[in-house]
Amino acid sequence: MENKRCFANRFADYKGALCTGQNNDSIVRTVKATIEKILKKVPTDLKDCDGGLYDGPAGVAYMLYHVSECPWFAQQRDVYLKTAKQIIDVSVRYVDGEQEENMRAAFLLGGAGIYATAAMVYKALGLSDFVKPLTKFRNLWEVCAPMNFLECGSDELFVGRSGYLCAVLVLRQKLEIEILSPDQIKAICQAIIASGKQYARKKRTAFPLMYSYYGTEYLGAAHGLSSILQMLLSYQELLSSAEKELMWGSVDFLMNQEQNCNWPAELGAVIDRENELVHWCHGAPGVAYLFAKAYLVNKKPQYLDTCIRSGELVWQKGLLKKGPGICHGVAGSAYVFLLLYRLTGNSKYIYRAQRFAEFLFTDEFKAGSSSVNSVYSLFEGLSGTVCFLVDLLQPDKSEFPLFTVFV
């Protein structure tokens, strides 16, 4: 029976040699051609700036910034950065006029991500003006500090507090300056923990910390527990011992929800093997980043083992039919291999990432994958694919876009 969600992986696994057909020059050519294609599609009108970094034009600006940072594109750097600035400037104007104050603190779907990207692009261009969007970004911490600042759920990655903390990590890494004071970060972490405790108690869940988004108790990276815990781990040096205990208890509890190398989209669900979600947004390809972070923080082998099992599932079921993107597409799956390469140094994972990259350009993929609304976008479209291909050129520095575990 044909799998509705993924193509069959017909590639032979690693036998000790990387793919010869994919040299760096051919990847560079593909990246340049794909960027040309994207820039023909990206809207430049103020009214088309919705969607934030996720599927709005701002994500294209981030992609151009990411490519410009790679030495393989040194000649294109200035052109890419100037184009990124034109795109992000319109998005900044759009969020400056955002009526919904609370959505301005959203990382992937609102203002925080747009201001963060503007700061990175301006700084890369050598403009002292980068302080303006950075200041707007910093001021948003007050918006997301109150416990229930969003009715739909104040803690998740796309619009909530953990997304804001994620943006702080990215900015700290790229700008090499402190973004918020330790006290400000601590206040946000404490709000996440208090909110998770309160919800777990109210719903009588067995988890020490639990959250919901639009009434659903998600477990995955997009809106769920795994990315919230990943952000707490990223700032664990600021937590008290009691808070750390709750955090680690929740990490281990989530590890125990594994079903055959995967995690259900929501708490208590049973995975249907024929129809399971193996996406960054829901399932093992996103949850793996939490356990990668846990392993980097405390070096316990069970966390790395969990990541490795996730990688095996992705090799079997990660050639997804939902497009080329990073949220629920092939590039998002392939990023798991680059993560595992950085954790283990095993070249098998570069080989697997190369095979997934190869598949993206086959007739089978083009004919059998579903069409994407915003083909240019970072999370659903080709901009995420470009980020992945660029990271394939520099696997030692590779990271899932805007979702760092190595800081």
The value of Rg in angstroms is 20 Å
Structural class: mainly alpha
Largest sheet: none
Quantity of strands, as a count: 0
* Envelope shape: globular
Overview of the structural elements:
The chain is mostly helical and 407 residues long. Helices cover 54% and strands 0% of the residues. It has 17 helices and no strands. The chain has helices spanning 24-41, 52-55, 57-68, 77-96, 111-124, 131-139, 141-144, 161-175, 182-203, 225-234, 241-255, 284-298, 301-317, 330-344, 348-359, 363-368, 382-393. Helix 12 (284-298) packs antiparallel against helix 13 (301-317) and helix 13 packs antiparallel against helix 14 (330-344). Belongs to the LanC-like protein family.
Topology overview:
Elements: H1 24-41, H2 52-55, H3 57-68, H4 77-96, H5 111-124, H6 131-139, H7 141-144, H8 161-175, H9 182-203, H10 225-234, H11 241-255, H12 284-298, H13 301-317, H14 330-344, H15 348-359, H16 363-368, H17 382-393
Helix pairs in contact: 1-17, 3-4, 3-5, 3-17, 4-5, 5-6, 5-8, 8-10, 10-11, 10-12, 12-13, 12-14, 13-14, 14-15, 14-17
Short description:
The chain has 407 residues and is mainly alpha-helical. It has 17 helices and no strands. Helix 3 packs parallel to helix 17.
